[in-house]
Design brief:
single chain; disordered C terminus; mainly alpha; 0% strand; 164 residues
Length: 164
């Protein structure tokens, strides 16, 4: 029962689009109606409101971290599934007709929750990436949680893993 609640809660948490929430709080246009039409921090930044974009980034990243953190306490065996659920909730949010964002900030939050070293390393590589590579960086971050989950599963099974 705890596992099902952790997964469902993570998905619902992931379905909260902070780009839409923050845009409404700041009386900004819906980010799905301009620019890339993607509800994310970059599109919110196109409004010129850096504070709104930063809050969107923190909110989307924070929900990824929170889902992993809560699952690690309430259902430790379901951490990987909760990580996947919050990410999928962001990509396919039930509250927004299953049309969500790219998941970059949420994936970064998930990685920070799974292992802060991997999370920080991934974020550092993302920040350093050239602007032309942002789409490629987004795709790498989308795929990275799955690799991290596999590494953590190996670690849970007793295999020696050293992250330096």
């Amino acid at each position: 029962m705890q596992t099902a609640l952790a997964i469902a809660g993570a998905y619902l948490l992931g379905s909260i689009s902070f780009a839409i929430v923050v845009s409404r709080l700041f009386a900004l246009p819906d980010p799905r109606t301009f620019g890339s039409k993607n509800p994310g921090a970059t599109n919110v930044l196109r409004t010129g409101k850096k504070t709104a974009a930063a809050l969107t980034l923190l909110g989307d990243g924070g929900k990824g971290w929170l889902a992993v953190f809560v699952a690690s306490i309430t259902a430790p065996g379901a951490v990987a599934l909760a990580a996947l659920a919050v990410f999928l909730g962001h990509l396919f949010p039930v509250f927004h007709r299953f049309r969500g964002g790219k998941g970059v900030a949420t994936a970064a939050g998930v990685l920070l929750g799974l292992d802060w070293r991997i999370g920080l390393g991934t974020i550092a590589s993302w920040v350093k990436a050239e602007p032309e590579l942002s789409a490629r960086a987004a795709e790498i971050l989308r795929q990275f949680p799955f690799a991290t989950v596999d590494v953590r599963a190996l670690h849970a099974e007793g295999a020696r893993l050293r992250v330096t």
